[in-house]
């Protein structure tokens, strides 16, 4: 972690020497640059990376976490080994009175249930919806707990498009090396950040990151945009069912114009 902090500090010092400073307060961690605001000229043509749906009213883009997913399944399989040994031991000699053994048993069960629940229920491609008729952005987040027996549930955040600014992050020295786009939600008329969400997880090409932000800006301004994404194949999540379930009222609101009547 110290190495990463030193690298981030060097990047910040280099940008400061060039006279480039973050305009938002506070800036995102590993900040590399602020992207043009919505009303400003975009320097790169609009281009989707992936898309679930796009029409004249709304657009939904998935955000696929592109690292660690296979590793989680590996952890689940690894934890099956001590669980199997524990179950065999209990079956043969009964419940132990050894506190260390019992503690390891409880920890093994908790870790197994946590990671097993994570790969089955946490959506890998949590989406963001842009409704250009309402000028709203709907962010699908997933609230999980370290305790696997607690209820994990989606959290839908709704923001005004006018309050959103974009920052690019360079994830140098990470397992998911590349570029991310963060959307900062500021207090109206200010650069004071109230919340943030990821627009795209790490992509290798900075031009893909630029193109995605440009596409969102053009789309929300009702400018012509391409509807064909760069990538059409979704990465495997290995879940046996759909893990993204929008609440009915939010689903209806985010996919309709303000004057639409519910059917």
Topology:
Layout: H1 2-17, E1 31-34, E2 53-54, E3 58-64, H2 69-93, H3 99-121, E4 125-131, E5 136-143, E6 153-160, E7 164-171, E8 178-186, E9 193-203, H4 206-220, H5 248-254
Antiparallel strand pairs: 1-7, 2-3, 3-4, 4-5, 5-6, 7-8, 8-9
Helix pairs in contact: 2-3
Largest sheet: 5 strands, antiparallel
- How confident is the prediction overall: mean pLDDT? 83
Cα gyration radius (Å): 22 Å
The fraction of residues in strands falls at: 15-25%
Strand order of the largest sheet: 2-3-4-5-6
What is the number of helical segments per DSSP (H or I, 4+ residues)? 5
Q: What sequence of helices (H) and strands (E) makes up the elements?
A: HEEEHHEEEEEEHH
| Uncertain spans | none
What class do helices, strands and sheet pairing give? alpha+beta
Distance between the termini: 53 Å
- Strand count: 9
Coarse shape? elongated
- Binned, the helix content reads 25-40%
Spell out the key features of this protein.
263 residues; alpha+beta; five-stranded antiparallel sheet; four-stranded antiparallel sheet; 9 strands
Could you characterize what this model shows?
This protein has 263 residues and is an alpha+beta fold. Helix content is 33%, strand content 24%. The chain has five helices and nine strands, in the order αβββααββββββαα. The strands form two sheets. A five-stranded antiparallel sheet has the order 2-3-4-5-6, covered by helices on one side. Strands 1-7-8-9 form a four-stranded antiparallel sheet. Strand 7 and strand 8 form a beta hairpin. Helix 2 runs antiparallel to helix 3. The radius of gyration is 22 Å and the shape is elongated.
């Amino acid at each position: 972690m110290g190495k990463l902090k030193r690298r981030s500090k060097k990047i910040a010092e280099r940008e400061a020497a060039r006279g480039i400073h973050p305009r938002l307060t506070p800036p995102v961690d590993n900040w590399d640059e602020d992207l043009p605001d919505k009303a400003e000229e975009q320097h790169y043509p609009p281009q989707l990376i992936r898309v679930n749906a796009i029409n004249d009213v709304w657009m939904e883009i998935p955000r696929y976490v592109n690292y660690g997913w296979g590793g989680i399944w590996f952890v689940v399989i690894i934890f099956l080994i001590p669980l199997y040994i524990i179950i065999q031991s209990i079956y043969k000699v009964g419940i132990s009175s050894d506190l260390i053994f019992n503690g390891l048993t409880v920890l093994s069960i908790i870790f197994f249930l946590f990671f097993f629940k994570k790969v089955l229920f946490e959506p890998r491609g949590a989406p963001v919806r842009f409704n250009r008729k309402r000028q709203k952005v709907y962010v699908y987040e997933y609230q999980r707990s370290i305790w696997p027996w607690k209820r994990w549930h989606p959290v839908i955040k709704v923001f005004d498009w006018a309050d959103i600014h974009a920052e690019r992050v360079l994830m140098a020295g990470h397992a998911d090396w590349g570029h991310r786009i963060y959307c900062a939600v500021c207090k109206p008329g200010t650069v004071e950040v109230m919340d943030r969400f990821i627009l795209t997880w790490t992509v290798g090409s900075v031009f893909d990151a630029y193109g995605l932000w440009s596409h969102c800006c053009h789309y929300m301004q009702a400018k012509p945009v391409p509807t064909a994404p760069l990538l059409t194949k979704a990465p495997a999540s290995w879940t046996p069912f759909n893990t993204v379930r929008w609440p009915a009222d939010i689903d209806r609101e985010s996919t309709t114009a303000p004057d639409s009547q519910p059917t």
